[in-house]
Design a protein that fits this description.
With 481 residues, the protein is mainly α. Helices cover 81% and strands 0% of the residues. The chain folds into three domains: 187 residues, Growth Hormone, Chain: A (Up-down Bundle); 53 residues, no CATH class; 216 residues, MFS general substrate transporter like domains (Growth Hormone, Chain: A, Up-down Bundle), CATH 1.20.1250.20.
Length: 481
């Protein structure tokens, strides 16, 4: 009887710790994703008050994204070496302080500098969020927790534009940064108090050179997606197109010779882990053209205002927010393989609806397609995350977490690049430079053709992803089928 009581108390303490850790990670995840989506709404106001032009204003967004993309792998590996609690908690403090500094910026370049620091803090948190959940939650609860984390991501993306517009209208643009301060203080306290300390500290060396080479490759892709729509295929963009694969090849060669590589070769030799990572990249590659292209269709073909477009596009994160926790619970009960495939099939169905859009299509197929795509993403991501983290050694969880984020970024960047390339094939000079084409219908035929072609490619990629998933998850231990 006494032993049963002690076991019950231990289980209760464990469950309480799990909830506090999930709350802490949810706050950090919400802040990082909210801040990535909220700034776009405030850019016109920021430009007016700080007297900045559009070309310079883009750096308020770009500096944040570039910093995160450059540092994810570095902080993921560093966390595995010195401990996740130390890096994640420090990231919370850095993000909170830099958010306050962003709110008191006196000119554009001060704001950009503080956004870089904010990106450092965000990358420290993003490199560890899923790893912390995977470390604290047992296998039978991990999927549900990761699904809730996915829901929080959707909430951050979904509330960013709406809440940002409200804050800017009522309190001014500085308030979108100040709102992070009280949340950051709570999150920092929870991090230092409740996150479990590392059991041991590794003596392995950090691969700074490998991290630098990888950052060069990833940022070459990122800047290619930024400059190609405006500049077309000129010397600068061609250099970026060449620089990315060269950097990734050099990274691979360097990692093979370095004693303590950023990405352990034993991880990539695991078929389940590698399949999970590759399928994640392919899914984001196939899905992101929807997010990228539909606003052009809705504004230039259908003639909707930006406000109405925002309301229509919200069907995507709403669906993700609904189905991510559901999928997480499903993967805990029925394991990961079938929910992943189900998510891919729903995603293909959504794309099949959107690929048939034309100049006379109504709102029903647009909203239905967006909801199905969001549903498919929500169903796919939680079991995919759980599968990857479940096949990662405990001392490599943070680098696996970082790889999950990096593969999402690479898939997103390649999805945008594919969309822009299709635009150039259909004769839009310099990529997407519509200039005078603000009148609905001017480029209707071109935009519809681009959507049809691009989403047809996306559907093909997802069919191949299903085949990859079936092949990669064959003959698995029962836990992962």
């Amino acid at each position: 009887m006494q032993k049963d009581k002690q076991d019950a108390e231990k289980t209760g303490r464990s469950s309480s710790l799990e909830r506090l850790v999930l709350l802490n990670v949810s706050i950090g995840t919400f802040m990082a994703t909210f801040d990535g989506s909220v700034v776009n709404v405030a850019l016109p106001t920021i430009g007016g008050q700080l007297r900045a032009n559009v070309v310079h204003l883009q750096w308020v967004v770009t500096a944040y994204l570039v910093t995160i993309a450059s540092l994810l792998l570095l902080f993921g590996r560093l966390s595995d070496i010195v401990g996740r609690k130390r890096i994640y908690s420090t990231g919370f403090v850095v993000f909170t302080i830099s958010s306050g500094l962003c709110g008191i910026s006196q000119d554009l370049w001060q704001l950009v500098a503080f956004r870089i620091i904010q990106g450092v803090g965000a990358s420290m948190m993003m490199a560890n969020a899923l790893a912390i959940i995977a470390r604290v939650y047992p296998d039978e609860k991990r999927g549900k927790a990761l699904g809730i984390s996915g829901m929080v991501v959707s909430m951050g993306v979904m509330t960013g534009p709406a809440l940002g517009g409200l804050l800017v209208g009522v309190l001014g643009w500085r308030s979108i940064f100040w709102i992070n301060v009280p949340l950051g203080i709570v999150g920092s306290y929870l991090s230092f108090k409740y996150l479990p300390p590392p059991k041991n500290v590794s003596r392995e060396k950090l691969d700074w050179i490998g991290a630098l080479i990888f950052a060069v490759g990833l940022n070459s892709l990122l800047f290619l997606s930024i400059y190609l729509p405006r500049s077309g295929w000129e010397t600068k963009t061609l250099a970026l197109l060449l620089g990315a694969p060269v950097a990734f090849i050099l990274f691979h060669l360097w990692e093979k010779k370095f004693k303590y590589p950023l990405i352990d070769t034993q991880m990539t030799k695991n078929r389940i882990f590698t399949m999970g990572i590759i399928s994640r990249m392919l899914v984001f590659f196939a899905e992101y053209p929807v997010i990228f292209l539909l606003p052009f269709y809705l504004q230039l073909v259908k003639g909707f205002t930006p406000e109405k477009i925002g309301l229509i596009m919200i069907f995507f994160p709403i669906a993700m927010g609904i189905f991510s926790p559901f999928s997480g619970r499903l993967s805990d009960r029925f394991l990961q393989k079938w929910p992943m495939i189900a998510g891919l099939l729903v995603l293909i169905t959504g794309l099949a609806v959107l690929v048939r859009l034309n100049a006379t299509s109504g709102l029903l197929p647009v909203c239905t397609g967006l909801f199905l795509v969001g549903t498919g993403m929500g169903i796919f991501q939680a079991p995919n995350n759980s599968l990857i983290m479940g096949n990662t050694p405990v001392d490599r969880l943070s680098i696996a977490n970082a790889l999950i984020s990096v593969m999402r970024n690479i898939g997103t960047i390649l999805g945008v690049a594919m969309s822009v390339f299709i635009f150039s094939i259909y004769g839009v000079e310099g990529g997407i430079s519509f200039g005078e084409a603000s009148n609905p219908g001017t480029f209707s035929k071109t935009i519809v053709s681009v959507i049809n072609t691009t989403l047809s490619i996306s559907i093909t990629v997802l069919v191949l992803t299903i085949l990859l998933t079936v092949w990669g998850l064959r003959q698995l231990p029962k836990r992962y089928k």
